[in-house]
Amino acid sequence: MGSRPAEPPPPPPDLYRDTWVRYLGYANEVGESFRAIVPVSLVWASYGVATLYVTADAVDKGKKAAMSAEESHARRATIAVVDTFVWQALASVIIPGFTINRICKASLYLMGSMTRWPLPVRKWATTAVGLSAIPFIIKPIDRSVDYLMDSSLRKLYKTED
């Protein structure tokens, strides 16, 4: 009887993709959902949190690429940083923030024109609509950004190899 070779251990979880830290990337969607009831400075602060998350993930991926690459460390690290930053900026901050903003604005407008609810009730209802939309927009936005990146920026990386 021969012994089977030991399988390599699975890679450690990615702090920015596989842990609770990933939720920091959604801070701006939460901020946009609360826009109707909190000061706008808090909404902008939520964008700051999401942008810090995006930047930290990009730097982390760049460091990992630089450590794992045998040749052209700087090029691989640069590609990892740029790719991660652009992808995260689009998929975690810009597109979802805009989407939730428009959903909340439309829901507040529609509730104002179709109900007789008092303004505070409409604002809280708008916040609930925005928060409940977040889980439904994430996957389609992620897939769309993957397609966009694969169809544009990532083609540049492949032609340079």
Automatic annotation (TrEMBL):
- What's the superkingdom here? Eukaryota
Q: What are its GO cellular component terms?
A: mitochondrial inner membrane
Q: In its UniProt record, which GO terms are filed under biological process? A: apoptotic process; mitochondrial fission
Q: Which family is annotated?
A: Belongs to the MTFP1 family.
Descriptive protein name:
Mitochondrial fission process protein 1
Please name the source species.
Answer: Salvator merianae (Argentine black and white tegu)
